[in-house]
Amino acid sequence: MSRSRRIKLQVFRATIFILLGAFFLLPIGAMFEFSTRGNSVTAPRTMEAWAAIFQTADLVKAIPVSLELALITSVGMLVLLLPTMVWVRLRLPRIHRIVEFLCLLPLTIPAIALVVGVAPLYHWIEINLSDSILILSFVYLIIVLPYSYRALDAGLAAIDIKTLSEAARSLGAGWGTVMMRVIVPNMSTALLNACMLSVAVVLGEFTFAQLLYFENLQVAIAYVGLVSAGTSIAVSVASLIFAFTLLMILSFFGRPRERVAREEELLPGTESRILPLRNSFIGVPDK
Fold first, then answer.
1. CA angle, 149 then 244 then 229, to 5°
2. Which of 50, 88, 140, 237 has its CA 20 to 30 A from that of 156?
3. Cα distances (Å, whole numbers) of residue 217 to 46, 64, 122, 194, 243
4. What pLDDT digit, counting tens, does each position of 113-165 carry?
5. Confidence at residue 41, expressed as pLDDT on a 0 to 100 scale
6. How many Å separate Cα 64 from the centre of its chain?
7. More confident: 281 or 109
8. Which of 232, 224, 210, 242 lies closest to 70, judged by CA?
9. How far, in Å, CA of 49 to CA of 55, rounded?
10. 8 Å CB contact between 106 and 148
11. Average pLDDT of the segment spanning 252-276
């Protein structure tokens, strides 16, 4: 690539980055500015709205509950979706399109229709099993399926799971070992992307919790906004910063593994690294 073309490409990338940064950061900056306003036009800036986050009982209760819901939904999504997708690709490739259609189906159904459909079921669960807000994770698992499926499908498409699984099975590995020590390490970035999307969807969900009479973070923000607009805006900014921080951590998490993999491809003597892996599968101790 010529020097002039490389400079033009860098300028183009910087321009796109600045435009996208302004598109996202200007509204967040305006929200932060609003949350620090005083009671009058001439009043000095204050952080009372931010301090009130930890003094509002509804918010203090809703924040950990929403994080628990995000964690339960992410784990449940991986336990349900990843083995199913791997098994379909290995053993039942003909129903791949059917599984894809079922996972993407929640995108075509309005949230209000889903709530009306699951409301009788949740009423029975609250009476006979539990009235904890954590039971929302069942319906959240449905609404995160389309986003998580696409992330996991991209990760599975990037590796040859059939060859990897057959090689591991020929060395004596069970299906649990194949899943945890062969497939999962090779698509760690896709797993993190799927979890990140699940967390983002759960933390921003309002309709199901409101109509099923539960109080998660978004419902608590809506209630606090009726009393103190500054505090509700401060919580919204804090949640956006939290999601942005998770995204940045995710973007840097997968880079070392990719860099090490490239270095191992360039370095000679990689056979010495393959032998311990083969021995771990068949149960032979390293010498």
1. 110
2. 140
3. 24, 9, 20, 21, 14
4. 888 888 999 889 988 888 888 899 999 999 999 999 999 998 888 888 888 88
5. 64
6. 17
7. 109
8. 242
9. 10
10. no
11. 48
pLDDT tens for 116-129 read 888 999 889 988 88
Residue 176 phi/psi, 5-degree rounding, is: -65, -40
Say what the pTM is: 0.76
Q: What is the pLDDT of residue 48?
A: 84
Q: What is the pLDDT of residue 40?
A: 66
Rg (C-alpha) for the chain, rounded Å, is 24
pLDDT of 145: 92
Report the distance separating Cα 149 and Cα 251, nearest Å.
19
Q: What is the DSSP string of the chain?
A: --HHHHHHHHHHHHHHHHHHHHHHHHHHHHHHHHHT--SSTTSPP--HHHHGGGG-HHHHHHHHHHHHHHHHHHHHHHHHHHHHHHHHHHT-GGGHHHHHHHHHGGGGS-HHHHHHHHHHHHHHHHHHT---GGGHHHHHHHHTHHHHHHHHHHHHHTS-HHHHHHHHHHTT--HHHHIIIIIHHHTHHHHHHHHHHHHHHHHT--HHHHHTT---HHHHHHHHHHH-HHHHHHHHHHHHHHHHHHHHHHHHHSHHHHHHHHHHHHSS-THHHHHHHHHHHHTPPP-
The number of residues in the chain equals 287
Domains of the chain are 57-253 (1.10.3720.10)
- Mean pLDDT for 34-40 is 78
Cβ atoms of residues 73 and 143 within 8 Å: no
Is a pLDDT exceeding 50 seen at residue 264?
no
Q: Which two tokens stand for residue 236?
A: 């919204």
Q: Is the dihedral of CA 261, 262, 265, 270 positive or negative?
A: negative
